[in-house]
Design brief:
Helices cover 56% and strands 6% of the residues. The chain has helices at residues 53-74, 87-93, 102-121, 144-161, 168-171, 173-194, 211-217, 230-236, 238-258, 263-281, 290-293, 299-313, 315-323, 329-358, 384-387, 391-405, 416-440, 442-450, and strands spanning 39-41, 44-46, 75-76, 79-80, 126-128, 139-141, 224-225, 228-229, 370-372, 378-380. The structure holds NADPH dihydro-nicotinamide-adenine-dinucleotide phosphate (NDP). NADPH dihydro-nicotinamide-adenine-dinucleotide phosphate binds at residues 1, 7, 9-10, 12-13, 15-18, 20-22, 289, 346, 350, 353, 357, 377, 379-380, 385, 390, 392-393, 396, 428, 432, 435-436, 439.
Length: 460
């Protein structure tokens, strides 16, 4: 997502920081803050800003809600941008009222509260995160997979009990999005305020002293209410599962309007459900992502998790409700096959590294070749990681591309995700290359000589 520097979907996570990074959860890698070195300017330490510093952070905070609004206005039942010259007419025709609705606000608040409750109350193993700077380790409940199924069932059966059809989410899409934006701002203000309580662990990157920047990037490292870890819970639960249930409601709307669910809708909703399920099923892998170990919980993560993910990632399903291209079944089958290929690469590469980082002698990875580094850790040089250094990103991107292709030529707006995601992943790959060059020194250069391709073996 928009934040091409580290894990999370999320902005770069305005992305849900997908939780596929090497999992040493329960391992002993200390949470370091090597991403925010101070540099000297005229002898005075200067914070090293991302996003263009305070002005850039302020700009991003203003821009992101507008992007959500633009995507909504750019294609919907009122019309859909097909050519650049259509854009102004379509945008002007967009119904931007009601922007706020108390029922929608209550649903967003209730949905988020439900996920907070499931996080603390559901059974599941409690797993230790990485070692923090003070030597301690926090525990995290691993019950996200159960929460996923329960909340999906709750959505499907609960809304009718409240007198609403599941397709109501389509009718209330705009006020739901506004409420999610408002909630994420409220949560980040609250979390920022809490960070001034004594003895609150802070994220190194969120202590520049500039209030706008620190609010954006995140000041408190692990804000908690009892056993509820706000950052870990928001990372994978209300927004990510919210994306899945929005999609189900959008498919229900298509069925209501057209008497059937199209093959394109099946491919998009099915593929994205798999993506969300996969993140929850592999929940433990988030514990070693930068989002959890290093980033503070501020606007960037709160907005990315709660507003950006559900209301930009559900774009294709929303477009299909009113502008389904009715692609022939063989075309949709080919598109679904592309998505399946992406998933195989994405899951295969991430699982291989995850298993290797947990236990290199695991029979699933013990046959792979690796090189020893002076840092102490090993780098895989065969299997997925010998094919290309960021082949997991390629798999992820292919899935995103397949979802947009399922919208055919309905609108260029439908292609927002693969374009945005390509920018994010390229930037992220550059950043990770920089981090690894810092971590591994000459060993990283040796690894790059052995595995010269980044995204596509033999090509790129
Ligand atoms: P990676 O999973 O690529 O992890 C990078 C780290 O892996 C490196 O810093 C290094 O850490 C380790 N590593 C690199 N090369 C090797 C090797 N050859 N052998 C063993 N370890 C290696 O990064 P991300 O966390 O960015 O991505 C995880 C997943 O999340 C990806 O599939 C990505 O597509 C997805 N994602 C999804 C987003 C979304 O919005 N949907 C946004 C961002 C990411 P070390 O050596 O210290 O272990």
């Amino acid at each position: 997502m928009l934040r091409p520097t580290r894990a999370s979907p999320r902005l770069a996570g305005l992305k849900p920081a997908r939780s596929q990074s090497p999992s040493r959860a329960g391992g002993s890698t200390p949470a370091t803050s090597s991403t925010k070195p101070a540099r000297k300017a005229g002898g005075k330490p200067q914070p090293e800003y991302e996003f263009g510093g305070p002005a850039g952070a302020a700009g991003v905070m203003l821009l992101l809600p507008l992007v959500i609004g633009f995507l909504y206005a750019g294609c919907g039942k009122h019309g859909c941008i097909r050519l650049p010259e259509d854009a102004l007419d379509v945008l002007a025709a967009a119904p931007l009222a009601p922007l706020w609705d108390w029922t929608a606000a209550a649903v967003v608040a209730g949905w988020t509260a439900l996920h907070f409750l499931l996080y603390v109350a559901l059974p599941g193993p409690r797993v230790e995160g990485v070692v923090l700077a003070d030597g301690s380790r926090l525990k995290y409940p691993m019950n996200g997979h159960l929460a996923f199924w329960l909340s999906l069932a709750g959505f499907w059966h609960g809304l009718p009990l409240l007198g609403c059809k599941q397709s109501w989410v389509y009718d209330a899409y705009l006020p739901l999005a506004t409420a999610a934006c408002a909630l994420s701002v409220a949560l980040s203000v609250w979390s920022h305020a809490l960070s001034y309580l004594p003895n609150t662990p802070l994220a190194e990157g969120g202590q520049t002293g500039n209030p706008v920047y620190d609010f954006f990037i995140g000041r408190p490292l692990n804000p908690r209410i009892g056993s509820l870890d706000l950052k870990a819970c928001c990372e994978l639960r209300p927004g990510l599962v919210g994306w899945a249930v929005l999609n189900l409601g959008l498919a229900a709307k298509q069925h209501e309007q057209q008497g059937e669910v199209s093959w394109s809708m099946v491919a998009v909703v099915g593929g994205q459900l798999l993506y969300v399920w996969d993140a929850l099923y592999n929940e433990q892998a988030i514990l070693t992502t930068m989002d959890i170990t290093t980033d503070g919980f501020g606007f960037m993560l709160a907005f990315g998790d709660l507003a950006w993910v559900p209301f930009t990632y559900s774009l294709q399903a929303r477009i299909l409700v009113d502008h389904d291209p009715r692609l022939p079944a063989p075309a949709v089958a080919a598109i679904a096959a592309l998505g399946a290929l992406g998933y195989v690469v994405f899951r295969g590469a991430n699982s291989q590294k995850d298993a290797f980082r947990r236990d290199p002698s695991d029979p699933a990875v013990s046959h792979l070749q690796w090189m020893q580094t002076k840092r102490g850790t090993k780098l895989l040089v065969s299997g997925w990681w010998g094919a290309a250094r960021k082949i997991n990103y390629t798999g992820d991107w292919l899935m995103g591309l397949s979802w947009s292709l399922a919208c055919g030529a309905a609108s260029p707006v439908a292609y927002f995700y693969p374009v945005y995601f390509a920018v994010l992943l390229v930037h992220r790959a550059l950043r990770d290359d920089h981090f690894c060059a810092t971590k591994y020194g000459a060993d990283w250069e040796a690894y790059k000589r052995r595995v010269p391709f980044v995204f596509v073996p033999g090509i790129l």
